[in-house]
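Amino acid chain
________________
===
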Amino acid sequence: MKIAIVEDNEANYLTLKQHIDSFFKAHNLIGTIDYYPDGLALVNSFKNNYDIIYFDVEMELMDGMTAAKKIRQI
């Protein structure tokens, strides 16, 4: 499973990553987690290769809702 986390607050990113890693371990799953500090970083490198993308809704450079709309166009 390939997951992206788009979050401008590092503490929130680390908390979510820890929960996902614990879930992987508890269910014997293998996965990778990529981190993006804002929606623009994800949109600029998006290749439609994620199973799940967790977006922070409010971010300065590009919010999660705008980033989601842009990647749907890709």
